[in-house]
Design goal:
The protein is α/β, with parallel strands linked by helices. 43% of the residues lie in helices and 19% in strands.
């Protein structure tokens, strides 16, 4: 049977408002594709109207978790896009160390199940750069898994050999756990990136593969928040399918592929 896509009428508008009250997720920030994702799941679960679908996910924590995982698209891995991590080790961190003394502040925006902030912690540790990492995500289930720091062997396959043994302990059942000294470097927090204030004075912000489905207006709003959150001279790294076309209007300078920098002494453009 062909998938039925229900029209985005008044029922869908009510569904979006109810969902926002329940979870804090505003579906209007996404591109039109999110409508199809909602209805694909709605169709797969056999629901025929928005009210019925909302009652199902709001009364069942497992279904709600599955819905949020599907909508927020938690796709991540350790050291995703290796060239970006090479750039971090060879260019970004040495430049930040040249500019700043003492501990650095890093932000992983949309951290999912923790692979990105733990990757960042591994690099900082082996480069002997003291840092504090704040990792934010809206998905409570993903954050619980991130805080547990327990991964299957195939999930850590991309971790470089010089980091794997120093970063994980084997549990003997095909699982590996992040070492305590690495976990202590990362603080996980639930946050809605668009609605909540972001920590200031950040020297590096990672936001990769988070805004793919956001509308153009929402992307600009978020990039402006990142600009304000960065310390002078700080860096923003985005995903390899993303570009900030209006980076100069926001105030950024392009520092490399998918890498932007907040110059010293600049003020956010109006």
């Amino acid at each position: 049977m062909a998938e039925r896509i229900y029209p985005a009428g008044p029922g869908y508008e009510r569904f979006k408002k109810d969902l926002a009250r329940l979870t804090g997720i505003d579906l209007d920030i996404y591109k039109y594709q999110i409508h199809r994702r909602v209805h694909t799941l709605m169709n797969n679960w056999g629901h025929t109207d928005y009210g019925e679908f909302f009652r199902a996910i709001s009364s069942d924590d497992v279904k709600l978790g599955n819905f949020l995982n599907y909508i927020t698209i938690n796709v991540t891995e350790f050291f995703r896009n290796p060239a970006r991590w090479d750039s971090l080790r060879e260019d970004v961190l040495p430049e930040l160390r040249r500019m700043y003394r003492g501990s650095l502040d890093f932000l992983s925006a949309g951290c999912s199940t923790g692979e990105e902030p733990y990757s960042l912690a591994m690099v900082a540790r082996i480069e002997r750069i003291p840092c504090r990492i704040i990792a934010l995500d809206l998905d409570e289930g993903a954050l619980r898994r991130a805080e547990e720091g327990r991964y299957r062997e195939k999930q850590i396959a991309a971790v470089p050999d010089d980091l794997r043994e120093a970063s994980f302990t084997s549990e003997g059942d095909g699982f590996f756990r992040v070492r305590p000294e690495l976990k202590e470097m990362v603080t996980f927090k639930k946050a809605n990136l668009l609605e909540q204030e972001l920590p200031s004075g950040q020297h590096l912000i990672f936001c990769r593969n988070v805004v793919i489905y956001f509308s153009a207006e929402t992307k600009i709003m978020l990039y402006e928040k990142f600009y304000k959150s960065l310390a002078d001279g700080g860096f923003l790294m985005v995903g390899t399918t993303e570009q900030i076309f209006e980076y100069s209007r926001i105030g950024f300078e392009q520092a490399g592929p998918f890498l932007y920098r907040k110059p010293s002494g600049r003020v956010l453009s109006k």
